[in-house]
Amino acid sequence: MSAPTAPKTFHVKSFGCQMNVYDGERMAELLGAQGMTSVGKGEDADLVVLNTCHIRERATEKVYSDIGRLRRDDGSAPIIAVAGCVAQAEGDEIMARAPSVKVVVGPQSYHHLPEMVARAAAGGRATETDMPAEAKFAALPKRRKSGPSAFLTVQEGCDKFCTYCVVPYTRGAEISRPFNDLVEEAKLLVAGGAREITLLGQNVNAWGSEDEKGRKVGLDGLIRTLADDPDLQRIRYTTSHPNDMTDGLIAAHGEIDKLMPFLHLPVQAGSDRVLKAMNRSHTVESYLKLLDRVREARPDIAISGDFIVGFPGETNSEFEETLHVIDAVGYAQAFSFKYSPRPGTPAATMPDHVSPEEMDERLQRLQAGLQRNSLAFNQSSVGRRCSVMVERKGRQPGQWLGKSPWLQSVHFIGDFAIGDLVDVELIEAGPNSLSGRVL
Asked: What domains appear along the chain, each with residue ranges and CATH number?
């Protein structure tokens, strides 16, 4: 087989969280700045970047499956780069196990991707898994174009060390990007077409910096500054940690109209013993009291969360406590998963692992309760009038889909364009979406 030639086209495939989506966009910008053209399918590209996620079980095996599918009928393959958290955690193993992979780059080093690809195109291989986060952001190109809704990473890494989680090992310690850099990038996103910006971080509400006058500022201060831009209509943030919900951030939900009434605040479990074993810094009581304070500031706020069932040692009665929590909160949305051991995490070596069959049964019961809550929240929204940001066309002629302030999917009929803010009345609710009547 002949050596690879310099790629002219590329395809970035991102898995997992919104931060990976952001990273994938930035990698695409890097490659585009080198004169390469993005294509929609990996089989059509000279270079394929697999931007991986390591949170769930079997993530690594999925990467190898994707690598195998990239081989073409004639035996050739594109230059393959594995990026993201799987690359960070298992870079050397990937290089040893998959000779067709020419580049392995971690989430804090992808600003080196163009020169690593050039090395691969010359017949070599390259691995980079250092963690100089600030150097990465300083090296990335200026933002130019964006869709009506854009992501902006403000914070990376985690210092919480939950016993089930690999993020501290794949993303590193908590690092906050400088205030001025974020304000500048937000302005570029808005100038490029963004009307809504979602601020991202592993623990986004742990972000802190100094403003242009040298004053210490937290996430609420950044949100207040961004809200001053008259062309920016909506602000969101995710994912938050209960330990970092400050008084100022809670107050911001009641004081800043552009901050959408939606809060993703994971609790993970409803048992204090399980929470302690997870190394979560909150109790059920402190979490519920925190939500009471948020709702006092913004009564109509939608609450979202994350749940893990079957954590090592979790009993049936402790799982029942989780069911009590979801009904006490009334989540508008939630993500739920069976516990999966991640190599290198403390929970992986804990005794009394729950059987797969028991985890399946608990997950089904949990998701049934969460779906009831989601439907109830949507039904309580019927009759509300709100603005919906148009995201894409629907399946029916003249139909459009967009997001309400509470991050609900809403479909409606009319003559609009992607990015429009449309005033609607919510008239019918299902578990996953609502119908709107244009006002």
From this structure: 9-133 (3.40.50.12160), 142-260 (3.30.750.210), 385-438 (2.40.50.140)
